[in-house]
Design goal:
heterodimer, A: alpha/beta, Rossmann fold, six-stranded mixed beta sheet, 21% strand, globular, disordered C terminus, B: MetI-like fold
């Protein structure tokens, strides 16, 4: 079991409840998409799964370890094996692309190696390979502030691929990308998962992408898992219920879903 | 009702902001009285006349060759005191700042079990930083000069202690005011503190850190001059001698050197910021 959440609940310090009674088990190598209206708790769930947020209730098992019971050193080593693609790429604009990608392995490197890579790009070849997978191989020595928002997000994906995690978590990894690039990036994430046997859990705003790339779909609404089904069993009715009353045209979006699926071949062409 | 904002639209922070503004005014007024701050005295006609003749005595600047040689030596000594002092202060400040910066706390992620210990450690480091900078460098310099008979070395030590505390405090605050997310993301992926600092925080804060450090070096030059009055050598000692011997022209020459030094610091800062931008 790569990831196991047992009746996990999260109440933020301000008293707002983000998750309640979430049970979720993800086997090694499995690919799971989290969908649901905005504010449903998808990001919180992923942060709990990344050992970045300690749940106020319930238990977490990550790659067969219990992150909140082990020593600080073991927690650090565990975190180095978990990759996270953030919704907003957490990359300082003044960093060079190569350095931003190399930062993916800081959890595995000694301080001396890290400082060497900081001054002079150490493993430039490795960084270029990771960048080439997201179509940015030739931007190796550019500064990140010369990239567009979508390109920066792809650098963040390259960083996580370079890290080589056993469990890859992605929070809206393609929300800043156009349809064709989003599809290509998901192909790389899924390709990494199948090639290395790593588990992939991603939250996605676009339901059509979730259904296309992920065999298993988890619907989250108001901090609760509404359904946990194979992609084929996710019906328009379930989606309508999941997104019902979502502010900003959530209903329209849910109704739109089948249409999206119908136009899929066009979008990817 | 017209002119009355609906209760739910009222800015919730408005009363607090108003309270702060009033508090600031209430505190500042008695302070200005206490400091006998009366700008009108400066422009009193009687005072203006006295000041005018006083100022005329300072021209022209002294330029005798032997004095200029002395001035050069004193300038180099002051620069050496300031630079060595700030270098030592930097060595003291960097580890303290890394320990005190909240954005580099690993235990804060989660939060993990060690958070309380981390908070206590940070509090301890902050207290140490206060202790280091609470005694003015001039007092340390006096102590060292009297106790050990040191000359310029007393100035270096005094600067290292006080400026170590100052640099650490401001470094930590500059680092905390930068966007914490890049460093936090690295820590969440298992990175160590120093690596997260280099890859996540320094790229955001380097410019500000460098400009503050150069500014502090400039302040250290002035502090080194002041410490010269109590026997720590350099330009301060020269000013002291010039004033005691009543050679106002020399004071003017020395002041021109001060001006040149500050301009030098300004230029260095500008170049470094350009390089880092």
């Amino acid at each position: 079991m790569s990831l196991r959440l047992d009746s996990v609940g999260v109440v933020h310090p301000n008293g707002r409840r983000a998750l309640a009674g979430v049970d979720l088990g993800v086997a090694a190598g499995e690919r799971v998409a989290l969908i649901g209206p905005s504010g449903a708790g998808k990001t919180t769930l992923l942060r709990v799964a990344a050992a970045g947020l300690r749940p106020t209730e319930g238990g977490v098992t990550l790659l067969d370890e219990r992150p909140w019971s082990v020593s600080a050193r073991a927690l650090k080593a565990l975190r180095a094996r978990v990759g996270f693609v953030h919704q907003a790429p957490p990359i300082p604009p003044r960093l060079r692309v190569v350095t931003a990608v190399l930062a993916g392995r800081l959890g595995q490197w000694s301080l001396a190696r890290a400082l060497r890579s900081w001054v002079l790009a150490g493993d430039a070849a490795g960084a270029r390979d990771a960048l080439a997978r997201v179509g940015l191989g030739e931007r190796l020595f550019d500064r990140c502030d010369q990239l567009s928002g979508g390109q920066l997000q792809r650098v963040a994906v390259a960083r996580t691929l370079y890290q080589g995690p056993r469990l890859l978590l992605a929070d809206e990894p393609v929300s800043a990308l156009d349809a064709a690039t989003a599809d290509a990036v998901l192909r790389e994430l899924v390709g990494y998962s199948t090639a290395s046997g790593a588990t992939l859990v991603a939250s996605l705003h676009a339901v059509d992408l979730a259904l296309r790339w992920f065999p298993r779909i988890v619907g989250v609404r108001e901090g609760v898992v509404m359904f946990d089904l194979p992609a084929a069993e996710v019906t328009p009715e379930r989606l309508a219920a999941l997104y019902a009353g979502d502010a900003g045209g959530g209903v329209a979006q849910a109704v739109k879903v089948p249409a999206h699926r119908a136009t899929m071949p066009l979008a990817s062409a | 009702m017209r002119g009355v904002t609906a209760p739910e639209l009222r800015d919730p922070s408005a009363p607090r902001r108003l309270a702060w503004a009033i508090t600031a005014l209430v505190l500042l007024w008695p302070l200005a009285r206490l400091a006998e701050f009366r700008p009108a005295t400066l422009f009193d006609p009687a005072n203006v006349g006295v000041m005018g003749s006083f100022v005329r005595g300072f021209l022209p600047p002294a330029a005798e060759p032997e004095f200029l040689l002395e001035l050069l030596q004193a300038t180099l000594q002051t620069l050496a005191i300031a630079t060595a002092g700030v270098a030592l202060a930097f060595v003291i400040a960097v580890p303290l700042a890394i320990l005190a910066t909240r954005s580099l706390s690993i235990a804060a992620i989660g939060p993990a079990a060690g958070r309380r210990r981390g908070q206590a450690l940070r509090q301890g480091v902050r207290t140490l930083m206060v202790l280091l900078r609470s005694v003015p460098e001039i007092v340390w310099a006096l102590l060292f000069v009297r106790a050990s008979g040191l000359g310029p070395a007393a100035g270096v030590l005094a600067l290292a202690i006080t400026y170590g505390g100052m640099l650490a405090k401001v470094y930590a605050e500059i680092l905390e005011s930068a966007d914490a997310r890049p460093a936090r993301a690295l820590l969440q992926a298992g990175s160590g503190r120093v690596a997260a600092l280099c890859f996540g925080l320094l790229p955001l804060a380097a410019e500000e850190l460098v400009s503050y450090t150069v500014y502090r070096w400039e302040c250290a030059i002035r502090a080194a001059v002041v410490m010269g009055f109590v026997g720590a050598g350099g330009l301060g000692q020269l000013v002291d001698l010039a004033l005691k011997g009543f050679v106002p022209g020399q004071v003017t020459s020395i002041s021109l050197v001060f001006l040149a030094l500050v301009m030098l610091a300004e230029a260095i800062s500008a170049v470094l910021r350009k390089v880092l931008a």
